[in-house]
Amino acid sequence: MLTLIVPGLIWTRQALADLTYDLPLPAFTALLGRGRLSRRPPQSTAAALAEICALDAPLPAAALRRLALREHPGNHDWLCLDPVRLRFADRTLVVDDPQQLELSGEESAALAVALAPVLAALGELEVLSPHTWNLRLSAAAPAFQSLPDAVGRAASPLPLDAAYAAWRHAISEAQVLLHAHPVNQAREAAGKPLVNSLWPWGGGRLPEFDNHACATTHDALWSDDPVAQGMARLLQIDHSALPTGFGSTNARAPVAVFDALEHPSRTGDALLWREQLERFEADWLTPALGALRTDRLDALRLLAPGDLAAAELNVSRRDLWKFWRKPGALAEMAPP
Q1: pTM of the model
Q2: Residue, of 323 and 243, whose pLDDT is higher
Q3: Domain chopping of the chain, boundaries
Q4: Less packed terminus of the chain by CB within 10 Å, N or C?
Q5: How far apart are CA 227 and CA 129, in angstroms?
Q6: N- to C-terminal Cα distance for the chain?
Q7: Quick one: DSSP state of residue 308?
Q8: To the nearest 5 percent, what fractions of the chain are helix, strand and coil?
Q9: Cα 66 to Cα 102: distance, rounded to the nearest angstrom
Q10: CATH fold for the domain made of 2-56+209-333
Q11: pLDDT for 162-220, tens place per residue?
């Protein structure tokens, strides 16, 4: 069975109808017509991954991505502390995706060195990649909003509870330091986006692995997200970056996270969303449907997590025999 997790697929019913009315999606509509569609409560991508791999949510994202990008995080509490840009839009602060900063390794290292003393009371700062920073915590941290859930949305201030006081102070000091840092001054002169804050999220320690159920259910995980890759390493299954499409594979039950629809969905970029949907149709659904028809694939499971609602589509090889069923419309995946 191939499991596809596709965040950003679900809009409102009318929006989906308007966005797809003229798109040729023969594989998708055939699968919708023959398969079994069920609607689910709103769900994040991380929660969907945790569910299918039987891990507890919320996931300890910092520890997982350290496992993927560096080495075993040990018996320590970790926290993601990623560099971000907060920008004003419609009189509110919006969180941009760290990848849009396009930080170089040298820029990231220079910023981290300057910020380390500001954060020393909270933990030890570690740069895993230019856009991926972790903090090895000195003490347990409170819960924070997940950065993937915050990107493209209005930034929420940290709570005023006493548990967040040290974090409010440290991030405020970090913002002042970043404002005057030579890296940002050079980026401003070059017309590049500035790093003006840090985003804490995904805290916790790595869960213990003990003959986990996911190891017998799924045997590969394909994703560009280091948190997902860390999950695969934890569960001792094959993993790689997301392939360009579904082709021949030795995996019996792979999981693939196709996240190219998520950013345009969050930012309302309808043209880019349509382009990525056509790519998803051509590179994933068309070959998957062909594999179902030729007995090279026994089943397809498509999970569409989202803020408004989530949906699940299951199509087995036997479902394709239901030739009397008409193609379905993508708008059927939207909440009523």
Answers
A1: 0.91
A2: 243
A3: 2-56+209-333, 61-204
A4: C
A5: 13
A6: 29
A7: S
A8: 40, 20, 40
A9: 20
A10: Alkaline Phosphatase, subunit A (3.40.720)
A11: 999 999 999 999 999 999 999 999 999 999 999 999 999 999 999 876 554 444 588 89
